[in-house]
Amino acid sequence: MTETMTNPVLINGQWTKSLASQHFCASNPSIREEIPRDFPVSPWSEIDQALTAAAEASRLMRNWSGSRFAEFLEAYATEIEARADELVAAAHEETALPLSPRLADVELPRTTNQLRLAAAASRHESWREATIDTSSGIRSMRGPVGPVVVFGPNNFPFAFNGIAGGDFAAAIAAGNPVIAKGHSSHPETTRIFAEAALAAIESADMPRALVQLIYRTTHDDGYRLVSDSRIAACGYTGARSTGLKLKAAADAAGKPIYLELSSINPVFILDGVLNQRLDETVDEFVGSCLMGAGQFCTNPGLVVVSDNDAGQKFAGAVAERFMAATPGTMLSEGVCRAFGESIEVLTKAGADLLAGGQTGGGTGVSFANTLLAVSGTEFLRQPETFQTEAFGNGALFVLADSVDQMEEIAENLEGNLTGCICSATDGSDDAAYDQLEPVLRTRVGRLLNDKMPTGVAVSPSMNHGGPFPATGHPGFTAVGIPASVPRFAALYCYDNVRPDRLPRLLQDASPGANVWRNIDGQWSTGDVG
Amino acid sequence: MTETMTNPVLINGQWTKSLASQHFCASNPSIREEIPRDFPVSPWSEIDQALTAAAEASRLMRNWSGSRFAEFLEAYATEIEARADELVAAAHEETALPLSPRLADVELPRTTNQLRLAAAASRHESWREATIDTSSGIRSMRGPVGPVVVFGPNNFPFAFNGIAGGDFAAAIAAGNPVIAKGHSSHPETTRIFAEAALAAIESADMPRALVQLIYRTTHDDGYRLVSDSRIAACGYTGARSTGLKLKAAADAAGKPIYLELSSINPVFILDGVLNQRLDETVDEFVGSCLMGAGQFCTNPGLVVVSDNDAGQKFAGAVAERFMAATPGTMLSEGVCRAFGESIEVLTKAGADLLAGGQTGGGTGVSFANTLLAVSGTEFLRQPETFQTEAFGNGALFVLADSVDQMEEIAENLEGNLTGCICSATDGSDDAAYDQLEPVLRTRVGRLLNDKMPTGVAVSPSMNHGGPFPATGHPGFTAVGIPASVPRFAALYCYDNVRPDRLPRLLQDASPGANVWRNIDGQWSTGDVG
User: Fold this and answer.
1) Could you confirm whether B260 is annotated as catalytic?
2) Domain count, chain B
């Protein structure tokens, strides 16, 4: 294939020439030039084929054991590692994210680690929470929900990619085929993943429609896709506006859709901690806020400090550091433009500009590191406007006149992925902590103490989720295995079903020494009885 | 209060005179007469007061231990038992459901049992699935989601009542205040519950807004209620049309809403079982289908048998029994009218009438026990129309020309709460079972063998749920404790939170000998480490 030909799509295990009449190319943000590789905007007829193939694969795999999916996921991780250099080069070209530390040594290992953790969960099957009630003769477990479509975001070309990231791994681990909708900003990265996935499908002898790839659709076809009768559930990570439209379409059709939308990740930094460790706190905040040009879902975009000497000194120190640091290259012209628009919304509403505020200053697509400030009273006058997400290397400081005002600010927060309270170790902030924590607790998925929110560990106890509009449901997490897997499951209950007809996991004999089941209210790895 | 005065509403612990300009009365379906007790259609101002009080109660209870809620639930169950005679009399007058076996000896004990099981779950806290990852320093558990509104249905005045039933018990057990929206067909029953709840609130020293009661709202205010910023989640059991409108409103506001809507509960009766035990199967089916005038969510409304001698003999025997049995009294004129309309839809589409088809024949509001039949080929021509729910004492038989056709029928089924396959014990139906089971499995929440679906045990392994449109999410159950409780929870994650600031459940020391926690991947009742 030459680079002027349009790339084919992956439908039912075949790289299929697209019938697209519209095409697109990605750009290299480091040099602000289009990358001459042509990708299709698939017409509905192609999506329709993928849907039919996914439904057929789902039917075929209905009673397959988790180990089949584990074998695929492990083979896929190995294929990805074999093509690591290619993937890293493509992702770097398409996103300008640093090779190291990031794409090569952080995000790619994290991605293969997620796939292997998902494999372990799938093999293990404890995530299914087999529940056996011997007195009623009723047994239940989580089973596959059916074909899943996954939309990946622009900011994690590996770890959240629709064809390789967390939602993908969770959907496969639950036993479902996936139709991946690649992100338009890194199609070549996604294409290489799809080749690796196809190789793994072949080596693990899975249905060829287990993983399919569409690079892009029209908006209307996107809504049609998530609400199609052949789709059972959807995962989406990305911008709020698009996410809410997909949610409306999926909701109307009664399909679960798991969203990870915007989040400004409020950080409350109390007086005592600024007295105890001002310089370290400046370091930690600046590092967290500017890392990856601030293009993280958990970037600390809203900082609340006291409007006193300590708070002003902190804001001043951060502003200096922001001005001194070279801004990172942003993911795309679109991200840069949206960031500038958000900054404008905030300044027009009355925020003061302490640093930055204009495009440029870095390599390629860039925007000056931007720090804004507003008083607590002003914030509370327009709390919605001052929670406008500015996705990028910037933050809004709120200077509060009292802890009571901090509490009122917390009460006015929308749902967020994370919320942090930094407090002194000498007890001087404890009263303020106790006042703020209960309020912040209900507005965020992950509550942190004394550290910035940008690291998202893949831990069984992680919650990368939170109340609307950070996500669409406060009970689920998009990161963390096995916790993210049940999103793509249905509850399968068996009532009076004859013992030999039960799934192995629900039969009396223990399905394995590592498999936890809830038997008559007690968790056990043993046999029934 | 005389009976001509409008009943007050329960807002923030006070029986408050309603400012309603509209009122309503319930009817006694046994004698088809209005019951002269006047209840208000609350204006928004009243609902608004309830919302504010619920939000305040939710804030107050944020960190309360489960035992506080358990004490309330147990006190409430005791109060209900003390007023059992009153409740049973009111419910019988308002619904015509039999005193025994049903209201006095089945549904009321089931209701208090559910409340006590919910109390045990709340005290126990295993349902929170505390998850501790010692290596990352991240710990998480389920916490209260916030104020919940519960809409109860007409057909279970006790066990699904918005102020006493399964959704109510689950929402309280999770630590949330509840605004109950009573069903208009049994307001007096609901009023007595509210008095009992208030007494329990007082004796257990709970916030007075823990339980509030609105009897009725306008449709628009209902949509506004479920989408209000002070509401965190909603439970609804009832008609599909209303449920879908509430769902649209809640979805648009990003609020989880748990629905239990229509279900026709398909039953496949295979040839062998009719050969082995025709008479018993007729008995079981007729008993299940006509019990409570068929007004159960799990009533078997669609029966698939072979179009052969055995199938026709079965249909004929059921028709005879339907004609011989006196129809039960229905819940209301509206239910009777809707049943007749659905029968008309089915006959107009081509179903043959084998029995019944007209109103009357029983005491008060009644409709003849109605049996319809259609060929498999006809069914497959209009599968949606032939899945029209006829809520009442009737069923549609589908006479299939082959097991392949049965499978095709199963493939065309919408989501249902239950699905059943009755097969012979001599192995003669095993091939057909193996062909049908995988298809039916993904279309129902609870899969049964060899028994009718109308019993819904309150078991930890129960799934009273299923794919849309039976419910709004295939992963949740409305019945079964603790399984129904997490619907009203959010995932609370703590990252690097100092040990003494963690909820007791997430601290190193075991919170109790019966409390299961997942520590580094293993379920345990012990300490961390």
Assistant:
1) yes
2) 2
Cross-chain CB nearest to A460 (options B437, B460, B521): B521
The reported pLDDT for the residue numbered B91 is 98
Give yes or no: residues B295 and B355 share one domain: yes
CB contact under 8 A, B449 and A498: yes
In this prediction, residues B92-100 reach a mean pLDDT of: 97
Please identify which residue in the block is written with the tokens 């502003």. A319
Chain A residues 4-63 with CB within 8 Å of chain B: 59, 62-63
Is there a contact between A481 and A118 (Cβ–Cβ < 8 Å)? Answer: yes
- Minimum Cα–Cα distance from A457: chain B residue: B136
Question: What pLDDT, on a 0 to 100 scale, did the predictor assign at position B529?
Answer: 87
Write out the residue range of the structural domain in which residue B53 sits. 9-21+41-58+66-123+135-260
**Does A125 participate in catalysis according to the annotation?**
no
CATH number reported for the structural domain that contains residue B143 in this entry: 3.40.605.10
- End-of-domain residue from the set B206, B229, B260: B260
In a domain, A121, yes or no: yes
Same domain, B372 and B440: yes
Residues from chain A contacting residue B476 (CB–CB below 8 Å): 491
* Token pair belonging to B507: 């601290």
B459 to chain A, any CB pair closer than 8 A? The answer is yes
| Bridge pairing between strands B14-16 and B9-11 | antiparallel
Spell out which residues of chain B touch residue A131, defining contact as CB-CB under 8 Å.
Answer: 460-461, 483
| Residue B359 and residue B374 in one domain | yes
3-state secondary structure of A148: strand
Give residues 404 to 423 of A whose Cβ lies within 8 Å of B: 415, 418
What's the pLDDT at A250?
A: 98
A440 is a domain residue: yes
Note the pLDDT of residue A529. 87
Q: Does any domain span residue B461?
A: no
pLDDT number for residue B2? 43
Residue at token pair 């006790």: B158
pLDDT tens readout for residues A33-78: 999 999 999 999 999 999 999 999 999 998 899 999 999 999 999 9
Closest by Cα among B122, B33, B3 to B69: B122
Out of A46, A79, A125, A297, the active site residue is A297
Given a cut of 80, whether residue A3 has pLDDT beyond it is no
**B3: number of Cβ within 10 Å:** 10
Q: Name the minimum distance, in Å, from the CA of A59 to any CA of chain B.
A: 8
Indicate if B81 and B221 belong to the same structural domain: yes
Touching A: B residues 470-509, CB under 8 Å: 472-477, 483, 486-487, 489-498, 501
End-to-end CA distance of chain A: 62
Is residue B14 scored above 90 in pLDDT? yes
Our CA dihedral for A247, B177, B89, B337, rounded to 10 degrees, sits at -20
A429 contacts in B (CB within 8 Å)? none
Kindly report, residue by residue over B351-397, the tens digit of the pLDDT. 999 999 999 999 999 999 999 999 999 999 999 999 999 999 999 99
Same domain, yes or no: A247 and A329? no
B-interface mutation test, from A493, A494, A496, A500, most B Cβ less than 10 A away: A493
Confidence of residue A1 (pLDDT cuts 50, 70, 90): very low
Query: Tokens 């963390």 label which residue?
Result: A480
Q: Looking at the structure, tell me whether residues B308 and B249 fall in a common domain.
A: no
Could you read off the pLDDT of A363-378 as tens digits, one per residue?
A: 999 999 999 999 999 9
Three-state DSSP state, A98: coil
- Closest CB to B457: pick one of A138, A462, A490: A138
Which residue is associated with the tokens 């104020």?
A: B147
CB contact under 8 A, A491 and B136: no
Does A292 lie in the same domain as A240? no
Q: What is the mean pLDDT of residues A24-28?
A: 98
Same domain? A165 vs A311 = no
Are the C-beta atoms of residues B174 and B144 closer than 8 Å to each other? yes
- Residue A528 forms contact with B (CB below 8 Å): no
Residue where the block lists tokens 């409740």:
B87
Name the domain boundary from B236, B260, B284.
Answer: B260
Q: Which residues of B touch A451 (CB under 8 A)?
A: 495-496
Confidence of residue A338 (pLDDT cuts 50, 70, 90): very high
Which H or E run includes B218? none
Residue A346 falls within a domain, yes or no? yes
CATH number at residue B416: 3.40.309.10
